[in-house]
Design goal:
239 residues; alpha/beta; 7-stranded parallel beta sheet; 6 helices; globular
Length: 239
């Protein structure tokens, strides 16, 4: 089992939902974690909440993954504070759903720029730091990255692309001692698409489940790499 204490991590979109759940799990292992949000206030509030039960240190950063310069600034902030970067989780994402004849161009661009190009910016800005420590790069794709559905043209395109992108990056970076995995969840109890988590979400994957999965992968012997993991609720309600 890998010792994770005092490693450092950067999580995009870590102020709530899946990113927050992953941050909680890493901090409980003694990992120092930087989380990003497009709002500095949201990042600060999440960091303050996460710090209450954390073994590691936590840092909140304002950033938009659609900006390569923002991503570089975040990586530099991590290196300035902790001197290294071991783990990067490209989690930030969003969805706009409409029939293709009604899909607005700006909505299409926002989905692709956030879910796909934003991940490219995240790894591009952090790869040299990860090479120094033989780090781990995660992307959070979706079951929508292999399963298409009506009104999902933008989201499907972004997640199909992200799944393929991550697998290619895995082949590129494993020669540098960097492990790369994409996690592809189904229904998760988060704030995605303006949903408010509630008691009716009991059957869904919970954010802490996602956090445990990332910890399990980090603790696995690095000679073995689960590169693409599909995750779904085990007992969804009958339709």
């Amino acid at each position: 089992m890998q010792n994770l204490e005092n490693k450092t991590a950067l999580i995009t979109g870590g102020s709530k939902g899946i990113g927050y759940g992953i941050a909680e799990a890493l901090l409980a292992k003694g990992i120092n974690v930087a989380i990003t949000s497009r709002s500095q206030d949201s990042a600060d509030k999440a960091a303050e909440s996460l710090a209450k039960n954390a073994k590691g240190e936590v840092l909140g950063l304002q950033a938009d993954v659609r900006s390569f310069e923002n991503q570089q600034t975040c990586v530099n902030a991590v290196l300035d504070k902790w001197g290294k970067l071991d783990i990067v989780i490209a989690n930030a994402g969003l969805g706009h759903f409409a029939s293709i004849d009604e899909m607005e161009i700006d909505k299409w661009n926002e989905v692709i720029d956030t879910n796909l190009t934003g991940v490219f910016y995240t790894i591009k800005s952090s790869v040299e730091a990860l090479k120094k420590n033989g780090g781990y790069f995660f992307t959070i794709s979706s079951l929508a990255g292999t399963n298409f559905f009506p009104s999902g043209s933008a989201y499907n395109a972004s997640k199909f692309g992200l799944t393929g992108f991550t697998q290619s990056v895995m082949l590129d970076l494993r020669q540098h001692g960097i492990n790369v995995s994409t996690i592809m969840p189904g229904s998760v109890a988060t704030y995605f698409n303006d949903h408010e988590p509630n008691e009716d979400d009991y059957w869904k994957i919970q954010k802490e489940d996602m956090g445990q999965m990332v910890v399990d992968l980090l603790e696995m012997n690095p000679r073995t790499l689960p590169s693409k993991i599909e995750v779904r609720p085990s007992r969804p309600p009958k339709k």
